[in-house]
Amino acid sequence: CIRFQSQLPPPQRGECNSLTMGRRPARCIRFQKNKVFIKSRFCRGVPDPKIRIFDCGNKKASVDTFPFVAHLVSDEKEQLTSCALEAARVTCNKYLIKTTGKDNFHIRIRAHPFHVIRQNKMLSCAGADRLSSGMRHSYGKPTETAARVEIGQILISVRSKDTHAPKVIEALRRAKFKFPGRQKILRSTKWGFTAFDRDEYRRGRVEGWLRHAGNIVTYVPAKGVLTKRNCTPGRNDSSGSEEDDDEAEEAEQ
Question: Which of 50, 84, 138, 224 is the most core-located residue (most Cβ within 10 A)?
Answer without folding.
Answer: 84
